[in-house]
Amino acid sequence: MASKDPVYFIDTFCYTFNPKQDPFHLRFKLFPFQKRLVRDIVTAIRNGEDLFIDKTREMGVTYTIISVLIWFWLFEPASNFLIGSRKEDYVDNRRGGTTGNKEESLFGKIDYILSRLPTYLLPKDFIKDRHFTFMSLVNPELGNAISGESSNPNFSRGGRQRAVFLDEFAFWEEGAAVWGATADTTNCRIIATTPGNRPSKAKRLRFGKDGEKIKIITLNYQLDPRKTRKWLDEQRDRRSTEDFDREIMVNWETSITGRVYPEIESAAYGDFPFLVNQQLYCSWDFGLDGTSIVFLQQNPANGKWRVVDSYEKTDQPIQFFFPLFGYPMDSKFQYTDDDLKAINMISQYPKAIHFGDPDVKKRSFVAQTSTRNELAKVKIFVQSQSKNDFEYRRDITKIQLAKGIEINASDRNDNFFEAIKAARYPQREETSQATTPINKPIHDWTSHARTALEYFFINIELYSGVDEGRPSWADRASDLARGAMRSVTSRSSVMRRR
């Protein structure tokens, strides 16, 4: 019976673990929605179809998927699977790690279920110490294997799998690269995730933004008989509005309180391509944790600023970005498929006037030199003015956004647009006694895109009329800001600098 029916197998032999209640060890008695999910997963694996499970928190979905994969591993030949999560500890933490209980990892769950199965269900000649190692489970009788891997641009490359399971995919840093790599690895990719709090490949898949075919299963809290009205009220009381909407109500488009730039909602988002014979501007925000670049032009037909393109990368030195401007790629850097697409597009743009942070003079990430000096080696000279406090940047940016801007629809600009929309101030607890105003936004994934746009708007009036320039203009920014504009604006042509 167990070999013929995965529902019977799970109901009869599998356990789940929940440290938040007593008893902690529970027979895995499937709810009706979980039984339907089991059938959907089995069908997807056998038919070679992609499956997106859009879920609220604590629905037992990961345990359900893992149990189905174990069932295939036990009873059906040619059942090789790859399972992954965003961090190695979430894939397999049985050797130790930072995630706490070993059952929190995917292989920890496999270990938990497998160790409670009767021995007569285990494969012939199965020896746990030999066949169940770090991120690997082998069936010596049928030759099946379940392997693990954490998020990376080359996830799954070089292997062939009956199915690939991507856990909490909305939170993977390399989601787009992983999704592309897995297309050649398997015909069946199973995603299980709660809505993420930032742009992701998962969100694009969920709403069909890239035209890819995938079956969507949404599991709302109402399907789980444990989640009563009392439970819902408790969750609402202990979570922020955004967290409740996202984690409990499965809302991918939550409203954000305390937004820095609500004016961005007036932006036109659509087909606004590069304008031939119009000056291109490039605005940077340099950071040790990430660098963001936005490319803009002014539409002569209506005077509005247009975001033509954008690009952001985390944890890379400034030299990583040089190929965007036509310089050869350095073999010491690893570029994803998405990076290569960006390089192919952006490197074809004409020379731009560059704006950015006055901190461009500071030491760059990794290299023992300044970012400005490194950029100067490839003839990129960043113009910046010394008046640079956030309130000043914010006020000017709000004025410009209120006039309306145009954003060219693309994957990269979609991420940029989402970042500007999601930038927000921190919220105080209701019990806080603080009286000073909150005047700085949260530093998170939105910060670099937001700041790059701010640098553009505070510099464009100052530098847009500059004539044939020299690298020294960047050094003279403070002089310009103190009133030397007369000597600048009298010049007629526009400075063109990389």
Architecture overview:
The chain is α/β, with parallel strands linked by helices. 32% of the residues lie in helices and 15% in strands. It is built from 18 helices and 17 strands. It has helices at 6-13, 32-47, 61-75, 88-91, 106-114, 128-131, 175-182, 201-206, 229-238, 241-248, 337-346, 371-376, 390-402, 411-422, 447-463, 472-475, 477-481, 485-489, and strands at 15-17, 25-27, 51-55, 81-85, 132-133, 136-138, 145-150, 163-167, 189-193, 215-219, 268-270, 280-285, 291-298, 305-313, 352-355, 382-383, 406-408. The strands form three sheets. An eight-stranded mixed sheet has the order 5-6-7-4-8-9-3-10. A seven-stranded mixed sheet has the order 11-17-14-13-12-15-16. A hairpin with a 6-residue loop joins strand 6 (136-138) and strand 7 (145-150). Mean pLDDT is 86; it is low at 430-436 and 467-498.
Shape from CA axes?
elongated
Class by SSE composition? alpha/beta
Helix content: 25-40%
Rg is: 27 Å
First-last Cα distance: 70 Å
Mean pLDDT: 86
Q: What topology, given as strand order, has the largest sheet?
A: 5-6-7-4-8-9-3-10
Q: What oligomeric arrangement do these chains adopt?
A: single chain
Number of DSSP helices?
A: 18
Low-confidence stretches: 430-436, 467-498
Largest sheet: 8 strands, mixed
DSSP strand content: 15-25%
The number of distinct β-strands equals: 17
